[in-house]
UniProtKB/TrEMBL annotation:
Metal-binding among keywords: no
Originating species: Jiangella mangrovi
Signal peptide start-end: none
Keywords on record: Repeat
Protein name: Fructoselysine-6-P-deglycase FrlB-like protein
Keyword check for Repeat: yes
Domain SIS: 30-168
Molecular function terms, GO-annotated: carbohydrate derivative binding
């Protein structure tokens, strides 16, 4: 029997305490976060990239300014931005550090959990979420807390998310959800990035076949995978109309509940850990992964 998951489970359960700090941190760091009207690029790797995608859509939709999101390794050289915002839990991610070094002269801010890491020298400004740092390789509370701080900076209240988080943490995970092929996550708008993160959690923590798509694009090929063994999870509401009925008619299990999308992501985190433990996988130490990707 493989024991594990203690760290990530505690970190998942602690997210409410972290999120409650978001409004104050957004206020305290207002001077180093993107200003309204700025043209902004947001970068990260893996989970941090998916949080960047979600924030970019939210920021544009709220009227704060043009915002692009890139994997740090794919940042388009030659574009002009008023500020580049980097998200990096460890502050040591190679692609992020290399990019920040190339961007000397462009205002940069890094959101990190480790203020003493190399990113402190690479970025002009830091937003420090050291209280949300994690022992587990699998990211949970740092990513969601970073996004909640950025949402709060855009003027979004945290009350509903916190109320829905209580529901997410109390959700009973049925045994029938622990081994699906595939797990598919669908999003629209800013929840498309969250769908990508949800799929990554299943892959990391349980070595499961999991994928993610914009909901409208799911019909364009991936729906061919849906059958009685699959689960299709809608993050952010049942959109487009009729798609959930189409999927259910194919025999797939559909999950779509009216929760704040970040709180709904917490349910996915819990499912990923439970699925990993059911397979004898240690979610705290995923296969072939380390806490920070450092390239030599």
């Amino acid at each position: 029997m493989v024991l594990g998951g203690d760290h990530v489970l505690k970190e998942i359960d602690s997210q409410g305490d972290c999120w409650r700090r978001a409004p104050r941190l957004a206020h305290e760091n207002a001077g180093v976060l993107p200003r309204e009207g700025d043209r902004v690029a947001v970068v990260g790797c893996g989970t941090s990239w998916f949080m960047a995608q979600a924030y970019a859509v939210l920021r544009e939709a709220s009227g704060h300014g043009e915002t692009d999101a890139f994997a740090a390794s794919e940042y388009p050289e030659g574009r002009s931005y008023d500020r580049v915002l980097a998200i990096t839990r460890s502050g040591t991610t190679t692609e992020v550090l290399h990019l920040l070094d190339r961007l000397r002269g462009v205002p940069t801010t890094a959101v990190t959990a480790v203020p003493g890491a190399e990113v402190a020298d690479a970025a002009d400004e830091l937003v420090v979420l050291d209280f949300a740092d994690e022992t587990s390789v699998v990211q949970t509370r740092f990513a969601t807390t970073a996004l909640m701080v950025l949402r709060a900076h855009l003027g979004s209240p945290v009350d509903q998310a916190l109320a829905d988080l209580d529901r997410a943490l109390a959700w009973t995970i049925g045994d029938d959800l622990l081994d699906r092929r595939p797990y598919t996550f669908l999003g629209t708008g800013w929840t498309t990035g969250l769908a990508q993160e949800a799929a990554l959690k299943l892959r990391e923590a349980s070595l499961s076949w999991a994928d993610a798509y914009p909901a409208m694009d799911y019909r364009h090929g991936p729906i061919s995978l849906a059958d009685g063994a699959s689960l299709v999870w809608f993050l952010g509401g049942l959109r487009p109309d009729g798609l959930a009925d189409e999927v259910a008619a194919l025999g797939a299990t559909v999950v779509a509940d009216p929760l704040d999308p970040v709180a709904d992501l917490v349910r996915v985190q819990r499912l990923a850990v439970a699925a990993g433990l059911a397979k004898g996988v240690d979610p705290d130490q995923p296969r072939n992964l380390t806490r920070s990707v450092i390239l030599h």
